[in-house]
Amino acid sequence: MNDVVVIGAGVAGIQAALDLANHGSIVHLIEREPTIGGHMAQLDKTFPTNDCSMCILSPKMVDVQRHENIRIHTLSEVVCVEGKEGDFRVTVHEYPRYIDIVTCTGCGDCIQICPVEVYNRFDAGIGVRKAIYKPHPQAVPDRVIKDAEHCIECGLCYDVCGPQAILRDDKEKEIVIEASSVVVATGYDVFDARQKSPLGYLKFPDVITSLELERMINASGPTGGQIRRLSDGREPEHIVFIQCVGSRDMTLGRPWCSCVCCMQAIKNAMLIKEKHPSIAVTILYMDIRAYGKGYEEYYERAKTAGVRFLRGMPSDVRADAKGLGIQIENTENGAIEVLHPDLVVLSVGIQPGNATAALAGMLGIAREETGFLQSAHDAVDPTGTIRPGIYVAGTAVSPKDIPDSVASGESAAMKAFVSSKKGKVRGRSR
Fold first, then answer.
1. What is the pLDDT of residue 271?
2. Fewest CB atoms within 10 A around its CB: which of 256, 261, 332, 366?
3. What CATH number corresponds to the domain at position 202?
4. Do residue 124 and residue 176 come from a single domain?
5. Are residues 76 and 123 part of one domain?
6. Contact 56, 46 (CB under 8 A)
7. Are residues 65 and 79 in the same domain?
8. What are phi and psi of 61, to 5 degrees?
9. What percentage of the chain reaches a pLDDT higher than 70?
10. Which residues have C-beta within 8 Å of that of residue 233, sequence separation ≥ 6?
């Protein structure tokens, strides 16, 4: 047996799957969303090069789809893992798509005619989607999905679909995969900014999260790349970023640094200044953590571009006669300042996914006190676990940026490949 199961199809899982498949393993890539790609597909640019995020990710997604050794299972979750290294039985629950994935061409005629619009989670609520939809234009597989919860069964999509690929009824099912090893790359969730209620998220429409800004600033996003206040639709004159929202916060029991927030804010601040030089941008921070290759230089470029860095953390965001008001102490000189931004961006941190605890229990692997999956040894074996044959990668283990997530996926893939070969040898010797 040489099959490997990769749970999670973000950039770390995709990289692990490609490396394993290129070494001859049959890879089953399990993803709970309708498309592979994970959070990286939501981003506009990557730091510190400002390269297009999808220009990096989309070719990898296509390579996964075309690779003869990779089997993609979207809308799927692992519900049981039994056995041992070299001989795992992985039970996967597949949810209905209500689409014949073979006959559907992904043309989108059904999307255009659908009259129902609902909250679009991919656009972080900035935009809407139809009851039959594709998560984004580069989705893999390039097929629609019908949202049975919100579909009103008007029948228009059935009439307009030439291949008759839309199903009125579809069933959940379970499959069992025999595998020699398992790679867990289930990614992360973003912090719910409502837990920091003094900062006014959802209380004031012009207080948004960093993920919402990513979708707003993206040229293929719901606003076509235009930065707009949600309250009145006008372009802001002053944008303030508040760092460490849900990170390094002992009052919430969240002591960890989320690693990407500083650089993400700097990146988006620079993009704003490039596209809209007249917009003033201020970043409120505790410490700037620019630790990667070229990151410090990127930080210096942002200052040169006119981004203001003000060291100090506000206690709250308030409404006053001038709109939004933020009172803050500049801890570098002790001065008290009152800012009146038109748009406030909360740089929300990374946290373990909601299903991480249940998945760890099912797999028999340990978690850190923070809730992230625990590796065998941070320095010696950062992708191994206490259960032989099961490996961890990406932000399921700890907050990471994209290059570190890719490197982690590559490391876990090679561990899993070696493990599968050991299992094969053991199987012959018994």
1. 96
2. 332
3. 3.50.50.60
4. no
5. no
6. yes
7. yes
8. -60, -40
9. 98
10. none
As a whole number, mean pLDDT of residues 51-64 equals 97
Residue by residue, DSSP assigns 93-155 as: EE---SB-TTT-----HHHHH---EEE-TTTTTSSEEESEE-SSTT-SS---EE-TTT----S
What amino acid occupies position 135?
P
Average model confidence (pLDDT) across the chain:
95
Q: At residue 426, does pLDDT exceed 70?
A: no
User: Can you give the pLDDT at residue 370?
Assistant: 95
Q: Are residues 201 and 242 in the same domain?
A: yes
Backbone angles phi, psi at 30, to 5 degrees: -100, 125
pLDDT in the model for residue 423: 52
Tokens 């949810």, located at residue: 95
Q: Where a domain ends, among 310, 330, 349?
A: 349
- In this prediction, residues 91-102 reach a mean pLDDT of 97
pTM of the model: 0.94
Taking the CB of residue 346, how many other CB atoms lie within 10 A of it? 27
- Tens digits of per-residue pLDDT, 326-385? 999 999 999 999 999 999 999 999 999 999 999 999 999 999 999 999 998 887 899 999
Domain that holds residue 149: 102-164
What gap in Å lies between CA 28 and CA 12, rounded to an integer?
A: 14
E-state strands within 160-274: 173-179, 181-184, 188-190, 207-209, 238-245
Q: In terms of domains, do 217 and 330 share one?
A: yes
Q: Would you say residue 430 has pLDDT above 90?
A: no
- Alpha carbon 312 to chain centroid, angstroms: 28
- CA-to-CA separations, 24 to 21, 67, 261, 410, in angstroms, rounded: 5, 11, 37, 15
Maximum Cα interatomic distance, the chain, rounded to a whole number of Å? 79
